[in-house]
Specification:
Gyrase A, domain 2, alpha/beta, 456 residues, ten-stranded mixed beta sheet
Length: 456
């Protein structure tokens, strides 16, 4: 239905590039089939440029109501309450209805990933700008459609952007800043497939709390044909961070700059009692029967890919547990990252030693610790205007932890606001930068190709 709708609206008139001026309320949001809580997080705060009335188009079912309930929480909270006016349409023709009515100029996508590529194409063909949650493609077939759509979007006067919240996580941001300082970091190592120059590992949980509430997952979330496998889902963020580190604000040609060495995938078992806890449903649905072994659902939510980007060996991996271990329930998702240079390694650690909070470390590779510490202090002072209050503490042999003031740290929820502000600025500029478009294309090539390699 999605691709048919895209074809149907292919001749729709596209808006002129530069149609946005930054005026109050000129951005009119549409929300399409909001099956993931990220659709609501885009509306955690108000923006002068965004009209408070949002038109939601969705099929009948629980997903739309859960979305409205999440937005209602923001409207009714005591601190910085929002004032969104949600207008809901439900029906089998929700996509066609959205396109025919065209009551907005930016559509927010966060839901069933198997349908997302088609939704992006339908919106672009209709002349509607797109702000999409990841991933925008879950396999190579959908990647080819997405690639063509992203290349055609500028010609049609619309802008497609994906929600890369991890770029503005303070440790990730500062890691890139320090890596870009040759006097401190040196040159980036090339590494080997066995000992890569960049490693990024992420651990997630099916059951967790969001905005203080237990997260209810839709049943399709556990179907890799709808949600996608782990190797193409959360790894989108990690691959994006790798690209921003190795080739910051540069165009990437995936046919020349990316080379795979290996990839693998494995399943997380989810027995029925745990499935009930996170979905609220008593039984597995029929579409998950194919993934049940020994009466237990097996979800291919884990993966690892090893590849070269511009000659630099990189390793990206994601693991999904059902919930955090006993005693660590409040830890949420965790992240580990290291970037290796000739003078220093810059690492993000988030284990028990860090209280499961991400912390940034700089590891010296020279024998002169005193000189290195002086260089590190100067490096942090040089970015003090943008990142005030940074300091260091000795944390071990030849290593220091970067101390970061709480007031410049953004929560996972707050980082959606950062992405929205970047996108609103791009709308006013009248274009997504060429490097952003190429890195989106290369990112989804990398994740979907990794799945193909892992299955070989």
């Amino acid at each position: 239905m999605v691709l048919a709708a895209a074809t149907m609206v292919g001749c729709a008139e596209a808006p002129k590039t530069g149609a946005f001026s930054g005026a109050k309320g000129e951005v009119k949001l549409l929300t399409l089939d909001p099956g993931h809580f990220h659709a609501a997080l885009v509306q955690m705060y108000m923006y002068d440029q965004v009209d408070p009335t949002v038109h939601v188009y969705a099929p009948e079912g629980d997903d739309a109501q859960m979305h409205l309930d999440r937005v209602k929480i923001y409207n009714e909270r005591s601190e910085r309450p929002t004032s969104w006016n949600e207008q809901l349409y439900t029906g089998d023709d929700f996509l066609e209805k959205m396109i025919a009515e065209k009551k907005g100029n930016v559509v927010v996508l966060a839901g069933n990933n198997g349908k997302k590529t088609g939704y992006v194409k339908a919106a672009v063909d209709a002349g509607i700008n797109v702000l999409s949650d990841k991933p925008m493609a879950i396999d190579q077939k959908n990647f080819r459609i997405l690639e063509q759509t992203l290349r055609e979007a500028p010609e049609k006067g619309v802008m497609v952007y994906d929600i890369m919240t991890e770029r503005s996580e303070i440790n990730n941001e500062l890691q890139r800043v320090l890596v870009a300082m040759p006097e401190l970091f040196g040159e980036m190592e090339k590494g080997t497939p066995e000992n890569p120059a960049i490693t990024k590992e992420s651990v997630h949980h099916f059951f967790k709390y969001v905005s203080g509430q237990p997260l209810r997952r839709p049943e399709w979330y556990f179907d890799v044909e709808q949600q996608g496998e782990g190797i193409i889902d959360v790894t989108t963020h990690l691959v994006d961070l790798v690209q921003c580190t190795v080739m910051p604000e540069q165009e990437i040609d995936y046919t020349k700059d990316i080379e795979f060495t290996s990839a693998k995938r494995w399943a997380t078992p989810i027995p029925l009692d745990k499935y009930r806890l996170v979905t609220g449903k008593d039984e597995y649905p029929s579409f998950l029967k194919k993934d049940i072994s020994n009466d237990t659902l097996q979800v291919y939510s884990n993966g690892e890919l090893n590849y070269k980007l511009n000659g630099v060996n990189c390793r990206v991996s994601v693991v999904w547990n059902f919930m955090a271990a006993v005693g660590t329930e409040g830890t949420g998702d965790t992240h580990y990252s290291v970037v290796k240079g000739t003078k220093a390694n810059v690492e993000i650690r988030q284990g028990a030693e860090q209280g499961y909070k991400p912390m940034l470390y700089v590891v010296c590779k020279s024998d002169d610790e005193a000189a290195f510490e002086t260089t590190l202090r100067k490096a942090l002072k040089s970015v003090g205007n943008k990142y005030p209050g940074l300091g260091i503490e000795k944390s071990g042999d030849k290593e220091w932890r970067v101390t970061i003031p709480a007031d410049i740290v953004k929560t996972h929820e707050q980082r959606f606001s950062s992405v929205m502000k970047v996108y609103l600025n791009y709308l006013v500029d009248g274009e997504i930068p060429a490097w952003e478009r190429s890195q989106m294309i290369s990112k989804y090539y990398t994740t979907t190709k990794a799945l193909e390699v892992a299955k070989e």
